[in-house]
């Protein structure tokens, strides 16, 4: 959620449509083949909601105002890979040419292949209201990032040119010590540990001057992700079979005077994350750890 002052809060929402839930509905015959052995891929979108009571309750426009919807998505191929615009970061602001823009980073999956996945930067100008129209990154012209992709279903966002950060979309802040934007997310990369390469999963961070061009990921801490079958070596954030997700970086002494903690420095900041059992229980535990960047 993004606090706008007074009683007003704006929030982006991750939505999932699961075709298998409609396989017996005669109104949707195209989903009749979905089953436990023929899993039809979920379709994900991003919408928005607005609160006028400081986040106690939220409401959406009727009809719902889309933030990011994949264009012409009508085919559900057998796959367990969600397709569309999915997980997203928090919202931060950036002033450009005298105009304040609100930014977020969204995970995009155009097809289940690795090359069909990536991150999409979206933005909308101030003021932030229930019906704000977000535009997606559409490439650069003369080295200047362009935001012209209509994400309401007409165009598809251009994924960022760094595939090495394709899954990192959880926490977005401006780091005043580095003088750069910082993206924190769950990630895994192959590392040579002396006897061959091994996938090292955990929480990583990446830095950027313009929210489009990002550095290679830097490890914060090893951790087991839900999609990995074995525990990561080294220092871990979980115990036993527990996995972790959804990292968020918060500086309790943030210089951000809007109340959104969108600015952090390198000293005594907190990494919040969710600790989850691997099976059987859907509840999770919120954990925090104090960390320092060097």
| Structural category | mainly beta
Tally of alpha and pi helices? 0
Distance between the termini: 29 Å
Tell me roughly what share of residues is in helical segments.
Answer: under 10%
Rg measurement, Å: 20 Å
Strand count: 18
Q: Summarize the helix and strand pattern as letters.
A: EEEEEEEEEEEEEEEEEE
Q: Low-confidence segments, ≥5 residues, pLDDT <50?
A: none
Name the overall outline.
globular
The largest pleated sheet is described as: 10 strands, mixed
| Percent strand | 35-45%
Mean pLDDT, to the nearest integer, reads 85
Would you write up a description of this structure?
With 294 residues, this protein is mainly β. It has no helices and 18 strands. It has strands spanning 2-5, 8-17, 43-51, 66-68, 83-88, 92-96, 99-109, 117-125, 135-141, 144-150, 171-175, 180-192, 197-208, 218-222, 243-250, 263-264, 269-276, 285-291. The strands form 3 sheets. Strands 1, 2, 3, 4, 5, 6, 7, 8, 9 and 10 form a 10-stranded mixed sheet that branches. A hairpin with a 2-residue loop joins β6 (92-96) and β7 (99-109). The protein is globular, with a radius of gyration of 20 Å. The two termini are 29 Å apart. The model has no long low-confidence stretch (mean pLDDT 85).
């Amino acid at each position: 959620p993004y606090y706008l002052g007074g009683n007003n809060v704006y929030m982006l929402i991750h939505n999932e449509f699961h075709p298998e839930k409609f396989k017996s509905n005669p109104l949707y015959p195209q989903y009749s083949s979905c089953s436990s052995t023929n899993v039809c891929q979920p379709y994900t979108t991003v919408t928005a909601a607005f609160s006028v009571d400081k986040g106690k309750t939220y409401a959406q426009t009727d009809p719902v105002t889309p933030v990011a919807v994949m264009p012409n998505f009508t085919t559900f191929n057998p796959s367990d890979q969600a397709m569309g615009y999915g997980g997203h970061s928090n919202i931060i602001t950036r002033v450009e040419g005298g105009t304040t823009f609100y930014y977020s980073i969204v995970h995009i999956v155009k097809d289940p292949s690795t090359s069909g996945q990536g991150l999409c930067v979206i933005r909308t100008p101030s003021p932030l209201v229930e019906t704000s129209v977000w535009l997606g990154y559409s490439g650069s012209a003369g080295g200047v990032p362009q935001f012209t992709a209509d994400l309401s279903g007409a165009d598809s966002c251009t994924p960022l040119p760094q595939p090495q950060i394709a899954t990192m979309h959880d926490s977005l802040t401006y780091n005043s010590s580095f003088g750069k934007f910082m993206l924190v997310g769950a990630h895994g990369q192959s590392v040579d540990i002396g006897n061959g390469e091994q996938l090292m999963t955990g929480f990583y961070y990446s830095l950027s001057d313009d929210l489009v061009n990002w550095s290679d990921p830097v490890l914060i801490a090893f951790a087991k992700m839900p999609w990995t079958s074995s525990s990561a070596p080294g220092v871990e954030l979980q115990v036993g079979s527990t996995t972790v997700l959804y990292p968020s970086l918060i500086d309790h002494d943030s210089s951000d005077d809007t109340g959104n903690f969108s600015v952090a420095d390198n000293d005594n900041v907190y990494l919040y994350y969710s600790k989850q059992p691997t099976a059987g229980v859907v509840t999770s535990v919120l954990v925090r750890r104090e960390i320092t960047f060097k």
